[in-house]
């Protein structure tokens, strides 16, 4: 008499969740890259749509009693920030984000924990605006975003695979029970390698690119942990159900959000700027 088949290990090729993640990536990845390549209005609208979904998911999971106006304030702030950034209006973009965050906090005040509304709306809108702003320009903006995506996607993918297949000590159980030190190491190694590889192809100094890729990969891991901690606080497993195998949009781009904020700061304050952004 044979025993029951062993359950498939999470992240293994035959795991249904893993299969759904791969299929979703095969659909969304090329579409995202095509719009990054196109740039301009098409890219701004694409990011605005994603930002609207993220803002809606944030309100839904963080404010169970949210009225329709809370969703309208959050999504309007996120969409407006992305579109204004696409018009190269940094002053108006900052004012729009600040105003939207304030209104979100005032609306949430009577329901308690207004800071969650302020922080969530500002974080999402600022990340969306930074990403659109990074894509400004022709060749330079394209290289800047491709470098960022290469580092973040590589760090995210290999951190997930190493954490699932190797396991080992947990990185921060209070935030996420699935993140491991092995995943962090793999994410850093492959994120740095991807950054150096893109630099080599695009004609930038791979050593400088690797130095930037290391903290960018760390920012990606931190972004993942921040969102995982927020979901645990709100008592939800996923931010949404829009993307099969991933959950919601916030679940898919949480690493990118923190990394793009780091990229924006580095572009403004770094000694040589962000790769490609100065072209």
Overview of the structural elements:
Helix content is 73%, strand content 3%. The chain is globular. A two-stranded antiparallel sheet has the order 1-2. 47% of the residues are buried. The protein has 9 helices and 2 strands. The model is unreliable at 1-8 (pLDDT under 50). It has helices at residues 16-38, 40-62, 68-86, 90-108, 114-134, 139-165, 181-202, 206-234, 249-269, and strands at residues 170-172, 176-180. The protein folds into 2 domains: 16-38 and 137-279, no CATH class; 40-134, no CATH class.
Give the arrangement of secondary structure elements.
Blueprint: H1 16-38, H2 40-62, H3 68-86, H4 90-108, H5 114-134, H6 139-165, E1 170-172, E2 176-180, H7 181-202, H8 206-234, H9 249-269
Antiparallel strand pairs: 1-2
Portion of residues within helices: over 70%
Shape label: globular
- Number-wise, the strands total 2
The SS-based structural class is: mainly alpha
Instruction: Name the poorly predicted regions.
Output: 1-8
Number of domains: 2
Distance between the termini: 68 Å
Mean pLDDT: 86
Total DSSP helices: 9
Q: Write the H/E string, N to C.
A: HHHHHHEEHHH
Name the strands of the widest sheet in spatial order: 1-2
